[in-house]
User: What shape does this take?
Amino acid sequence: MAITRLLLIGALLTLATGPAMADAATQAYAQGQDAYGRGDYAAAVEAWRHAARLGNSAAEFRLGAMYEEGKGVDADPKQAVQWYRRAAQHGSERAQFNLAHMYASGTGVEKNEGEAAKWYRRSAERGNAHAQYALGLIYYRGIAVQRDLVEAYAWLTVAAHNFKPNAFRDNADEVRDQIRREMTPAQLKAARDRVDEWASARD
Assistant: This one.
């Protein structure tokens, strides 16, 4: 009976403190943003570290970027990878993309094209245009995945749609045109159907 009562009290305390912790994390993250805007990178790191301890994935991502760029802390690619991984596991598409890039380039972690492809896909599925572009190139070139013109064309189409007018969109269109010349009519239809399915899922 006493154990049941303790469990119930613990559950009630968790419910009571959950929103308060979320508010504190949001406030700490905002303080970090303000400090960063002032150029006080050390204060930004301190605030974001506090927000990250409270489970704020945006703060985890920003800490990864600070360690990668050496702002407010000594540049440390391994620390950057650790923070990106935490944020990526908590669903940050930007962290997933950056973690993929770290694996692809072997920065702060042993180079692993398979891990890079995995994290590019997770980021791409969450709507990151740069990850969609990278994934299209990966499937076109067959890097750590089986070469797949349908997947390549589909992801480059989605990326081109999501990019604002820039060099990435121009390049995505150019590579997509190259791919189209290698595709059969059936493959092209399959790719376009896949793009339509992706768009419908996002609506």
User: Anything to note?
Assistant: The chain has two domains: 27-126, 127-203. DSSP finds ten helices and no strands in the chain.
